[in-house]
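Form P-L/3: holo structure prediction, ligand pyridoxal-5'-phosphate.
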Amino acid sequence: MRVVDLRSDTVTHPSPEMRMAMYEAELGDDVYGEDPTLNALEAKAAERLGKEAAVFVASGTMGNLVSVLAHAQRGDEIILGSKAHIFRSEAGGASALGGVSFHTVPNDDRGMLDPEDVRAAVRPNDPHMPRTAAVCLENTQNACGGAALTQDDMQAISAVARETNIALHVDGARIFNAAVALEAPASELARDADSLTFCLSKGLSCPIGSIIVGDADYIQEARRWRKMVGGSMRQVGVIAAAGIVALDTMVERLAEDHANARKLAEGLAEIPGIDIDPDSLPTNLVFFEIQRDDWQDLHRQLVERGVKGGGGTSRWRYVTHYGITESDIDYTLEQVREVFAV
Ligand SMILES: Cc1ncc(COP(=O)(O)O)c(C=O)c1O
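OUTPUT (holo model):
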């Protein structure tokens, strides 16, 4: 049976070039700083994001955790959107492991925070209150339809952060999707951030890995926290080799995923029972609402036909990625049309 797996861009497999690079990678012990392939990946990532230094971590969740812990002390607070992945989907790690509490402010439909909400959320210097250590943005914002925040958006929040003397961390799990969608260099989107985490293992198709970038002192502190949470690795070049290929070959390709997402969104918009605004879908995450009570049954039928994704609630998400072709989108639309026709 033909399978079109639209559950997430995390289901991607490494490209043949990545597999070859992994096979051939020069290795060393990274805890001694001696893995030449990882050192090359970290240098490349820092340069690409316009920062002094970078550190490799196992996942986006670990990247955000280590980033927050490197900014905040126990008892501190961070400000973030109520739909932020760090707040909703990372098991409360910064609170549980770092004693850092979350102060949420609303995300608008595009995932942006209102700078005035952020300013109002920063605590005064009062011993009754937690200290505010950082504000976090997410770009692209997953739960807000994969919307891309612009350089102006980032600048508006960083201005508040500078004024109030707190750090700006960006969960840039999909920062390269934002960069490609906005036709802006990722370094421009990262410019105002004190730290940024991006994932190699989503649209960039690596099997494992994320990277934190920032200035040299901050990354040194992040390395200490990575050690504490058990994230130091040894001959990690075997994974890092894929990351180098990803940064060299997989970034511009994201435009194909965005074009496929748009085609999918436009097709879904024509199917009765589906509510979607294709104009609000600039990247690779396609969210839509099923306006039928039998959505669970519709979901089951689509999975039986090999179309994976959505389900859980009547708000479904289909994600385009490396390995999903235009013909897969045609197949998906054909299957959805047939299933929804009954
Ligand atoms: C916006 C965002 N941040 C962070 C993560 C966490 O990444 P990981 O699954 O590698 O821990 C995800 C994963 O989907 C994400 O969508």
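COMMENT: The mean pLDDT is 97.
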